[in-house]
Sequence to fold (392 residues):
Amino acid sequence: MKSIIDQLDLNKKKVLLRLDLNVPLENGKITDTTRIDKILPTINFLLKNNTKIIILSHVGRPKGKVVNKLSLKPICEDLKKKLDINIKLITKNLKEINSKDLFNNFEDKIIMLENLRFYEEEEKNNIQFAKHLATLADIYVNDAFSCSHRAHASISEIAKFLPSYSGLQLNLEVDALNKITSEIKRPITCIIGGSKISSKINIIKNLIPKFDNIILVGGMANNILKYKGYHIGKSVKEDNCDQIIEEIFTLSKKEACKIIYPEDVVVGKNFRGSPEIKNLNNVLKDELILDIGPKTIKTINNVIKASNTVLWNGPAGYFENPDFAKGSYEIANKIIEKNKAKTIYSVIGGGDTVALLNNMGIFNNFSFVSTAGGAFLEYLEGKELPGIKVLN
Fold:
């Protein structure tokens, strides 16, 4: 993989810098700036080498339409403050701009193009859209590992038209995941949670041969509980998963990988409801499973205690409400305990998990924290990611 750090001739070059600035927004305010903070070293490296930077990114899922509340404006303002530099946000139709429209002011060092997903061509990996974006610069840099599993125009197609390199943060992400796969210390445990079920449940099947334990929590676990015949009330679940779940359990026996799922749960009538610990047989029709219970926490902590490597992607419950965050907090604290004793290598991934760690103020207490979710799991699974493939 060609890294921008190895590119010697950057002076006065225009650089298209693809970032993942898809940060959580509430009423136009950023609630977690981790993804912004992590790419600052790449921007500072490019500024130090006297380049002109054109930032490409997306926020949310506007599905090819202009959605004002998904503008990159608040992100642009945050970057301005962090870098103490003026950044111009270009809101003109991207398909109508050309390189002469950019950097008219000699003092301009960074510009940002408005949300790429305002254009349906981005997610369709449209060759003409990618080719047009490429005309704006001399070099392309991908520092968006968390988007690199997407075959989108600004991630994969664009690299056909420009000299293309990886950014500093992308290098760190790949190095950390390579360490897990090449210098693996068993027993290895993978904890998968969160509410995005369909994007992960097939991946679990492919991870089974690589791990000793797979722990399923959060929305992921509800499908397992339903498959096992338990009532899950109004809890989040995915339809038509029974066959893949059956395959997961069959394969796990064959590969001697233990599948661990909740033994007890914490429920509420709604996301703001009062928490109640319940055995699996006692969940009512009008209740939501929103966290793991104390017996499950104890089991998971014992597995972590016996592990030498742990990967964690996705919270154990609805952590946004502190009443349903205990499971996630306990998992985090057990990993930290082993990290401090230097008896574990821990990699944490996914936007929600990162938000949880920031809420707890423990972001720096793990071996590596990745902002990637799907890309993190797919890379571990051994898939060739479109955004990485084009850089090789």
Summary: The radius of gyration is 22 Å. Residues 17 and 141 are 5 Å apart (CA to CA).
